[in-house]
Design a protein that fits this description.
Structural class of chain B: mainly alpha
Radius of gyration of chain A: 39 Å
Strand content of chain B: under 5%
Radius of gyration of chain B: 19 Å
Distance between the termini of chain A: 70 Å
Number of helices of chain B: 3
Order of helices and strands of chain B: HHH
Shape of chain A: elongated
Structural class of chain A: mainly alpha
Number of strands of chain A: 4
Largest sheet of chain A: 2 strands, antiparallel
Oligomer: heterotrimer
Number of helices of chain A: 33
Chains: A mainly alpha (766), B mainly alpha (115), C mainly alpha (142)
Number of strands of chain B: 0
Strand order of the largest sheet of chain A: 1-4
């Protein structure tokens, strides 16, 4: 199975090459890959499923574990089957596109990711493929990347689904933590562990968030209609039959864990129902083919979520049946819509009419799938709808919502799949004609499926749907008879058709009515999202402008402020310690300080003050020199002759250097206003206090270390020298000194380069 | 004596920081020099101050008596002093060159890269 | 500066300072001194010369470009460390030889002394490069 999934990725990499070689026939040739996968999965279905495991990072609980049970195989067959059809279709639809090779790369990468998602038996593996599908979807939506609308739609879809993906990851991590394992097959057994756990609600919410964003539930639905900017094959594949159902898949998979959780059920039912109504109503108000289909997809996803929320055996069976039926007819309608667009150049339903004569095959396919969507027997859509009605009858409110949605489905089906082909032909930008086989064959195949399975629902049930439901519920289901649903359901179906037809004829009036709802715009989720995005960008800009303002003094102030604010609390916390140190030091100072040390200290203080206060540069430099010489004297007094000599000479050179430099720089300006200076004074003073205290604390901790002992003892014997400091510098720690002279060299060379190496073309002051 | 020189360290840091926060470039340079001195004295004082005994082994002895100054901080400070000089020199070269290109001594006017 | 006193004094101080720097370098291993101090004193000798006369004069006295001094110093320091590598020991292992002196007595010479000499040259070069560069800024490329 790993090979099966990876073959998709391999195919993706090879696709551009094949495209370059095959030209017009690319679609047909490349369809061999998904077609082959379809056959492979059929074989697995016959064999009853399979498992494959490859350990990847066992410590983290990640392994390439795949499991094909009924539910996974249902999806896998849909993915590979419809994938093959879409591949053929793409070859025709995008035949003149310069980036066709890239298209197939993205398409196959998506297919492989989606397959990986439904076959994964490991939580983290599932997540990885989940995000891969988001990513490939981004690439596909933004395929026409020179159009602003495509780019914006792609980014929006990516951000919404990725945000949900983050929630999903969090949920999965917590779930793994609570249940202690990361394998999906073992999940059902862990339901007990989850039952009383405090984190359960969090997990439920997070997982639902992930599922809802992916499956475009209200209020996260808005990316789906915008994703219609993608070329039609992608819309047909991803955004109606496979990717958007990933959320439904997740919900189905997690069903055994949360079967009796109130939050889970309520969330699914409420949001599913709301989505159904919202999507249906919005769909009725559309005029462009793809947008109508998009909103109806949103509604259909709502139905599926709703059914899984109900969670009974009947509901689950209805859900998988509806899922299958929907995939067939929705993909079919999308492909038909694309064919119409391709052949006529027109997308607006109000201007499409009478195409049946010009495109008979397409019209036939359209009629069949549309009727399946409307729920007309003997098509499979009718069977699925019957199952759905049977499942929701238990609750009148839910039933009412479902029926309302179904009515709107009828409207959409007739508007998109029937009306454009009947009636008087209208003028279209391109002369209407039957498109190439690659464009009418796939929809026809799907139509045949809807028809065929409609005649043999029992076969489908036994082979595919019941195992799928079993996969969800964790137990086998007995096949139920087609007629077992009884009169009420049949009556409802009939009523739906009649009322739906009426709605269809009244659709213009409905559209007018719904136009009045524009007033609710500000609260629309999409507008909220866009406002949120804009706010985020603005906040980022404002923050950057505030922190990265470019003033050196501001940055320095921040650095020193941080220094003080971070060390002061620590010192305060240990204030008894610090106080003791101060006390003992003061005592020892009074008793032990010599006169000349005090004098030296005073000299330092005065000269430091002089450096700060002197008005002329030379005076300040001279004062600096005194400070340096004072340092040297300190070194002499406290046993550091090497240091003292070095300090004397360095200080002399520093003074000379400063004088040479200041020769070129301007004199001091008058000092700044008092106000600013007090702040600086305070900050500087605090830094001084903190450092002084730090010195005292450090000096208190200091005991002669073993290192000092070692150096003193071994300086003569090992280092052949009596000047311990020098021996340390050139022998014991010679590597450090080597580094240091290199740094010196770099500093000097750098100074030289800065002063003398000027870029070409510059001479003197610009 | 640590108290006295801790105070000197504090004074050096305070003066250094104060000068660093000024607008005049020259003052910033002086502030940096003071800060360098402060750092050196900090290491020296924190290592313990012993009067007068340098860490030099006397003629004929095998090792230094235990109450000599700690040689390790001295070695560190020696390198620090010289490198401080190098840094100061580089800074001066930078300031000099900046002044050639932008004839101002006010650091606030040097904000941004388009001056 | 045009002071006669300063110039005459410098003419005498200059060689003395250079001798002092060599002395500090050589005795640094056993008495206060060492490569850093020696190098700095030598540098200050040239700086004194530059103050009394002219930087161009001082450069002529130095004869070599300070950058060559830096390079030579670094090379010496590295070379003193490579000796150990060639013998299979870690980098910068110290080797000492006892050289008998003509007037009796023994001089202990070793790689650390070579290292120190390298440090000295490097410091001289660095200081002079800095000071001379700063002094000659107006004149353009020296």
């Amino acid at each position: 199975m790993l090979i099966a999934v990876m073959s998709g990725f391999a195919g993706a990499l090879l696709a551009p090459a094949v495209c370059g070689a095959a030209g017009k026939r690319t679609g047909w040739i490349l369809a061999a890959l998904p077609g082959g996968l379809f056959l492979y999965f059929l074989r697995l279905l016959a064999a009853g499923g399979a498992v494959s495991t490859l350990d990847w990072a066992p410590e983290l609980g990640v392994s390439l574990a795949f499991r094909a049970d009924g539910l996974s195989l249902l999806f896998a067959l849909l993915i590979s089957g419809i994938g093959a059809l879409v591949t053929v279709y793409s070859g025709g639809y995008l035949s003149n596109h310069p980036f066709l090779g890239r298209w197939f790369l993205y398409l196959f990468a998506f297919m492989a990711s989606m397959l990986g998602l439904v076959l994964a038996d490991n939580l983290y593996l599932l997540f990885i493929f989940w995000e891969l599908t988001s990513f490939t979807s981004y690439l596909l939506i933004g395929f026409n990347h020179d159009e602003e609308a495509s780019r914006a739609a792609a980014l929006q879809a990516l951000l919404v689904t990725a945000a949900g993906g983050l929630a999903l990851l969090a949920g999965l991590v917590i779930l793994a933590g609570v249940t202690g394992n990361t394998g999906l097959s073992g999940m059902a057994a862990s339901a007990e562990l989850l039952r009383g756990h405090p984190a359960r609600v969090t997990v439920v919410v997070l997982l639902l968030l992930g599922a809802f964003t992916k499956s475009a539930q209200f209020p996260f639905h808005f990316w789906l209609p915008n994703a219609m900017a993608a070329p039609t094959p992608a819309s047909a594949y991803l955004h109606s039959s496979t990717m958007v159902k990933a959320g439904v898949y997740l919900v189905a998979r997690m069903h055994p864990l949360f079967a009796d959780d109130a939050v889970w059920h309520t969330g699914l039912v409420v949001f599913g129902g709301a989505t159904l109504l919202y999507g249906g109503v919005r769909a009725a108000a559309q005029t462009v083919i793809k947008r109508m289909l998009a909103y109806s997809t949103v509604a259909a996803l709502g139905v599926m979520m709703l059914l899984f929320g109900i969670g009974t055996e009947a509901a689950v069976h209805a859900a998988v049946a509806f899922l299958f039926a929907h995939a067939l007819y929705k993909a079919g309608l999308f492909l038909v819509g694309g064919a119409v667009d391709h052949a006529t150049g027109e997308r607006d339903l109000r201007r499409l009419s009478g195409l049946g004569r010009a495109m008979p095959l397409t019209a036939a396919a359209a009629a069949v799938v549309a009727l399946s969507m409307a729920g007309v027997p003997p098509l499979f859509g009718f069977t699925a709808k019957e199952h759905v009605y049977a499942a929701v009858l238990a609750s009148p409110a839910v039933a009412a919502v479902t029926v309302a949605g179904a009515l709107l489905f009828v409207l959409v089906a007739l508007a998109v799949g029937v009306r454009p082909f009947l009636g008087r032909p209208l003028d279209t930008p391109k002369h209407a004609h039957e498109p190439s086989p690659s464009l009418w064959l796939p929809p026809l195949a799907l139509a045949a499926g809807s028809l065929g399975f409609g005649f043999a629902p029992g076969l489908l049930d036994r082979a595919l749907l019941l195992p799928a439901a079993a996969g969800v519920l964790g137990e086998s289901l007995a096949p139920s008879g087609h007629a077992a649903h009884g009169g009420l359901v049949l009556g409802l179906s009939a009523a739906t058709l009649v009322v739906g037809l009426g709605l269809f004829f009244a659709r213009d009036r409905i559209r007018g009515l719904l136009g009045g709802f524009r007033l609710l715009s500000p609260g629309e989720p999409e507008n909220l999202w866009n406002a949120g995005m804009r706010g985020m960008v603005w906040a980022a800009g404002a923050q950057t402008r505030a922190i990265q303002h470019g003033y050196l003094r501001g940055y320095l102030t921040l650095v020193f402020l941080a220094l003080v604010l971070l060390t002061a609390p620590v010192l305060l916390r240990h204030s008894p310690e610090v106080g003791r140190i101060l006390h003992s030091r003061s005592l020892s100072a009074l008793l032990h300080l010599r006169f000349h040390e005090v004098g030296l200290g005073l000299l330092m203080a005065v000269s430091i003050g002089a450096v700060v206060h002197m008005r002329t540069r030379l005076a300040a430099v001279a004062a600096l020199g005194v400070v340096g010489y004072g340092m040297a004297i300190i070194f002499i007094l406290f046993g550091a002759p090497d240091l003292a000599m070095t300090q004397f000479v360095i200080e002399t050179l520093t003074v000379i250097l400063l004088v040479l430099a200041f020769y070129h720089l301007p004199a001091f300006a008058p000092p700044a206003r008092r106000v600013f200076q007090t702040g600086n004074l305070l900050l500087a003073g605090s830094v001084g206090v903190v450092m002084a205290l730090l010195v005292l604390v450090a000096a208190d901790e200091h005991h002669p270390t073993a290192l000092a002992r070692y150096f003193s003892d071994n300086s003569l014997s090992l280092g052949h020298g009596r000047n311990v400091v020098n021996v340390i510098l050139v022998d014991f720690r010679a590597l450090d000194t080597l580094g240091e002279i290199t740094v010196l060299a770099l500093a000097a060379l750098g100074a030289y380069a800065v002063l003398y190496l000027k870029p070409r073309g510059e001479g003197g002051k610009p | 004596m640590e108290l006295l020189f801790a105070a000197v360290v504090g004074g050096l840091y305070a003066a250094g920081v104060y000068l660093l926060l000024q607008r005049n470039v020259v003052k910033i340079i002086l502030g940096l020099a003071l800060l360098g001195h402060g750092a050196n004295l900090l290491i020296f004082t924190a290592g313990g101050l012993t009067r007068a005994r340098a860490p030099i082994i006397a003629e004929g002895a095998l090792s230094a008596p235990p109450d000599t100054a700690d040689p390790l901080p001295q070695a560190l400070i020696l390198t620090a002093i010289v490198i401080g000089f190098g840094v100061l020199a580089f800074l001066l070269a930078l300031v000099e060159r900046t002044h050639q290109v932008v004839p101002t001594d006010d650091v606030d006017e040097l904000k941004g890269t388009d001056t | 500066m045009n002071s006669v006193i300063f110039r005459s004094a410098t003419r005498y101080m200059f060689p003395i300072l250079l001798l002092l720097s060599v002395f500090l370098l050589m005795s640094g291993h056993n008495e206060p001194g060492g490569g850093f101090t020696g190098g700095l004193v030598a540098a200050s000798a040239f700086v004194l010369y530059a103050l009394a006369f002219d930087t161009a004069e001082a450069r002529r006295r130095l004869w070599l470009d300070p950058r060559y001094l830096i390079g030579t110093g670094l090379l010496l320091a590295l070379a003193s460390g490579v000796v150990g590598l060639l013998a299979g020991e870690p980098f910068l292992t110290a080797y000492w030889v006892n050289v008998p002196l003509p007037g009796g007595g023994v001089a202990a010479l070793g790689t650390p002394l070579l290292f120190d000499a390298g440090v000295c040259l490097d410091v001289v070069g660095v200081s002079l490069l800095i000071i001379f560069s700063m002094a000659d800024v107006d004149r353009g490329e020296p």
